[in-house]
Amino acid sequence: MPGRKSIDEINRRIERGEVCVVTAEEMVEIVEDIGPERAAKEVDVVTCATFGPMCSSGVFLNFGHSDPPIKMRRVWLNEVEAYTGIAAVDAYLGATQPSEDRGIEYGGAHVIHELASGEEVVLRAEGSVTDCYPRESVETLITIDDINQAVIVNPRNSYQRYVAATNSSEETLYTYMGKLLPEYGNVTYCGAGQLNPLANDPEFRTIGIGTRIWLAGSHGYIIGEGTQHDPSSGMATLMVRGDLKEADPEYLRPVVLEKYGVSLAVGIGVPIPVLDERVAASTGVSDADIEVPIVDYGIPSRDRPVVKRVTYEELRSGKVEIEGRTVRTGALSSYKMALEIAERLKEEIEEGEFTLTQPVEPLPREREFRPMPYRPPSLPRVRDIMTESVVTASPDESIEDVARRLIEKEINHIPVVDEEGRIVGIVTSWDIAAAVAEGKRRLKDIMTEDVITIRPHESVDEALRRMDRHNISCLPVVDGENRVVGIVTRTDITEVLRRRG
Questions:
Q1: Is 55 a catalytic residue?
Q2: CATH numbers and ranges of domains, the chain
Q3: Residue limits of the CBS domain (predicted)?
């Protein structure tokens, strides 16, 4: 394409101090005034940014080895649990994880901010004792300087755009979009509109894997598409990494959403090299060009209805009209902070402190975004829940001996088996009590010979149906030769169903 620039050429201009950098806000006016063709010749880089709650954020931490060493099975930082299923002293602290002692008023986002601020936090861990990791637990104060690596890895940041929220119901709702007043009492929204990186490069011509970015004051990278990446709906996302040790806590701020939970407000800046006229045109996008659906959160459904479509310009005006009423709007994100980040990145590029990188791979432009399917799994099999260590008796045993066994083992049913372990009867604690009252002495005189059984491969719901049909509370589990291999009770099944909800 005639007049096309390269990233290498722009980097040479940065090194020589000859680069022309503007913010995305400034680029709107430039493109409007002189057009994209001339803008492409005059502008080298457009700095974009966003700042707002980004729940899908967190940090990988390596604490180093204690003496004696510990293999961390569970770990808490200021009573906020981090995930430890990776290595002995590695953990991932998620921003939205709530504190165990303060609940949703304090969480992973607060710990991340405090670490970035150089504050001490309490590390408490429980260990899985092995020969090479003999320590059972540890509790110590740590700071960011004590940690070997503190790598910000955010699975989903910087939505290209996000829905606005309102509430048609008669109740106040507390959501990740903030407090939604009843009967369309307000509209909340999030995002930087014309400053947003992905809104300025919707075709991902310059943004991709390996793009260097400004992440909370550190220099980081885009490492892939973000989770829930849905470019066909205009809701592309980024997965990013950075260094918490270099981060500015001003751009990693904990957020508490009333009666909902904790989030982390993250500041991200992305430089867009103006390679040609097409890039210049896309970076001239304005708030008036970006449409946002207002979605009704008063409908408790995954597919909430769209009440109205508006632009960021309308949302940022402070009010929109819904069904003939003027409704106030409010932002969860900060345009002011996003613009500040764009200005800081612009300054770093102009001073030669930040150069651009060529993506090694573009972000996918087509990606099917799948909702969670609803396919309730079948109930577990009897073999999954049966008791395998079965207490049995023989027909010739005395009732007194069997009664003693029932009491010692704290059970209510005993299958009666022959010498080969095949079932020939069953007795219950009620049978024993009645036999004692009647003066009977041998088990074979009181046992029920017509025993209702079940096989290990049969389903739990079939076991429950069989118990109901025969008005019993227990089933011996037998193999193909009628040998007892387990026992399942109504209590066992009830507990499984309770856990599964």
A1: no
A2: 7-56+152-360 (no CATH), 64-90+106-146 (no CATH), 382-499 (3.10.580.10)
A3: 386-443, 447-501
